[in-house]
Amino acid sequence: MNDRIFGLLMLTLAVAYGWGAQQFPEPFGGAESIGPETFPTVLSIVLGLSSLYLMLRPDPSNGWPWNRTGLEMVCAIVVLCLYTALLEPLGFIVATTFAVGTLCWRMGAAPLKAYATGLIGGIVVFALFNFVLELPLPLGILEVA
Amino acid sequence: MESIGFLMQGFGLALQPENLMFAILGAFLGTLIGALPGLGPANGVAILIPLAFTLGLSPETSLILLTSVYAGAMYGGRISSILLNIPGDEPAMMTCLDGYPMAQQGKAAEAMAISAIASFIGSLIATIGLIVMAPWLASFALTFGPAEYFALFVLAFATLGGITGKNPVKTIMAAAIGLIIATVGIDASTGTQRYTFDILELYEGIDFIIAIVGLFAISELLFFIEENAGEGKPMIAMNKMKLKMKDIVAILPTAFRGGVLGFIAGVLPGAGASLGSFISYTLEKKILGKKGNFGNGDPRGVAAPEAGNNGAASGALVPMLTLGVPGSGTTAVLLAMLISLNITPGPLMFSQHGDIVWGVIAALLIGNVLLLLMNIPMVGIFVKLLSVPPKYLLPVVTMVAFVGIYSISHSVFDLYFMVAFGVGGYVLRKLEIPLVPVILGMLIGPEMEKNLRHAMQLSDGDWTILIGSSLSITLWCIAIAGLVLPVIVGPILRRRMGAAKATTGV
C-alpha cells in the first residue's frame, strides 16, 4: 500500500514537474537544440514511468509506527524545529540544553542526566567554536549587555 | 614509473605538520565513527564536511582529514562487531561471524589485533592497487566525450543499487528524485530560473551538504527512536592480549587474499565493501574448508572479511577519483566534498589537481600506519567510548550536525531544510528507497545535464549521438546489466548473506 501511495505522489510530482518545464520562458538568444527544459522533461518521464511501475507492482509494505513510538518521533521532529527556531533568540547554550536534553530524555535517559548532557555538550561546543575556532555562535539571552 | 615521483611529492604534502595532525585526528574520529553503531561512515563523513568548511581548511587538508576518517571508519566497524555482535557499519557484518565467538571465548583482544592487522594489509594492498590503476584509468577516461560521460553517469546510477540491491525501479526513482532536486535554481548555461517559486534562498539551488547531513544524521535519529534502541546492547569485556607471532603469520595469506578480492570488489561498479567482505569470507571458507573452524571463532574468519572490506574501501576510491563516479555512499559523500571545494573530479583531476590527488593517496598510506598503531595498543579507548549508550550519543551527534550546518551560512532557513530532508530521508528509508542515488543525483545532476547539452550541441539535436560510439554502447550495456542482474542474481546472493547472518543469531 505504501508503495502505491508513494507512487501516486511521485507521479503527481512528475507530471507537475514536467508541465513546469514546458512553461520556462525561451532563453535569451533563441531556442537551441537543447534548452533549460530538455533535461527536466527527460527526468519527469523517467520518474513518471518508474512511479507507474511502482503503483502496479508494489513491494510489501513496512508498517508505520502508528502508536506511542510514532508520537515520540513527531515529538522529536517538533523538538528539532523548536531548536532551529530558538537557536538565535535564546542562544546556542540554552537552546542546546533544551533540545539535546529533551531528546536524551525521550530516548530513555533520566531527566537530570539528560539535561546535564545537553548543558555540558552545549557549553563545550560553544567554547570550542567561540574561543578555539573563533566561529561565533549566538549567545542569545545569556549575553551581558 | 612516474607515479612514484608523484607519490613522493604527495608524501611531502601529507607529511606537513598541519596535514599530519589532521590525518591523526581524522583517523581517530573515523575509528570512533566506525565503531559506534548508529553512526556509519557515510553519516560521519557527512557531519564532518561542514566542520571542515567552517574551519577554513585548505582543499588538500580537508580531503586528507576526510579520507582519514573514511579509512578509520573501516577499521572501527570491527570493534562493535567483535564486542557487541552488532556491526558498527554494514561491511563489518561478516566480522561478527567469527569475531563475536572469539570474544565469547575470552579472546576479544586477539580478535581486535588480528582484525587490525588484516585491515592494514587489506588497505595496503588496495592502496598500491589504487596507485597503479588510477593514473591508467584516468588517462583512459580522457578519451571520453560528452556522450560517453552521460552514459557513464547513467551507469553509475544503474550499478549503485549494487548486485544485492532489491528493486531496481526504486533505484531509478531515487536517482530521478535526486536529479530533480539538482535542477532547482538558476540554470547555469541559460540563466533561466527553474522551480525557484521566487524564493530567494532557492535561486542558488539546494545545497547538497545540507541535504546529505539531513538525510543521514536526522533520519538516523528518527530510526533509533522508532526502534527504541536507546539503551544499547551488553558488551563483552576486553581481556589481556596474548598474541604470538605465529598467530599473526597464520593469518597473513588470508589477509592477502582478502585484500586483493576486496580491491577488485571495490573498483567494480555495483559491488562495494559489503560484498568485498562477504566474498573474501566465503572464499576463505571454501579454500580452507574443513581445516578451518569458521563460525566458531576462527581467527582467519576475522581476518578475511576485515581485509576484504578495507581493500574494497580503498578500491572504491579508484572510480571516484578517476571518473568522478562514486560506487558507494561514503565515496559519494567524499565526492560532495570535492565538488564543494570546486574541484571537478574525473580524469582531469590528475593533471589539474595532481598534488591533491597524490597527497590524498599518500595520506591514505600514512593513515593506515597510524590506524594500525592506534588500533592495537589504543583499542581500549575506543572500547570505553563505545559504551556510551545511543540515547546520549545520537542527540549529541544531532547537535553537531546543527552546529556544522549553522556555522556554514548562519542561516536558520538551512536548518529547517535539513530537518525536512531528515524527515524525507526517514520516509524514503521506510519505503526501502535507497538514499545514495538521491544524493548522487544531487551531486552529479549539473554535470550530467552539461554533458547531455554538449553532446546534443555536437550532434545538432540528434539523440542518437548518445549511442554513437562503441564505448558509449558498452557503457549503456553495462548500465542495463547493472539494473537487470540484481533481479536475477540478487535473490540468491541475498539469501546467502542472510543465511550467514542467521547462523550467528544477530
UniProtKB/TrEMBL annotation, chain A:
Specify whether Membrane is a keyword of the entry: yes
**TM helices/strands, residue ranges:** 39-56, 115-133
The segment(s) forming the DUF1468 domain are 5-138
Q: Does the keyword Transmembrane apply?
A: yes
Q: Which UniProt keywords apply?
A: Membrane, Transmembrane, Transmembrane helix
This protein is called Tripartite tricarboxylate transporter TctB family protein
Q: Which organism is it from?
A: Cobetia crustatorum
Recite the lineage of the species.
Answer: Bacteria, Pseudomonadati, Pseudomonadota, Gammaproteobacteria, Oceanospirillales
UniProtKB/TrEMBL annotation, chain B:
Xref: InterPro entries: DUF112_TM (IPR002823)
Annotated signal peptide: none
Which stretches make up the DUF112 domain? 20-440
Cite the PANTHER family for this sequence: TRICARBOXYLIC TRANSPORT PROTEIN
Which Pfam families does this UniProt record tie to the protein? Answer: TctA
Q: Where are the transmembrane segments?
A: 20-39, 45-71, 111-137, 149-165, 172-188, 208-226, 247-268, 323-344, 356-386, 392-408, 415-443, 463-489
Instruction: Could you list this entry's UniProt keywords, alphabetically sorted.
Output: Membrane, Transmembrane, Transmembrane helix
From which source organism is this entry? Cobetia crustatorum
Q: What is this protein called in UniProt?
A: Tripartite tricarboxylate transporter permease
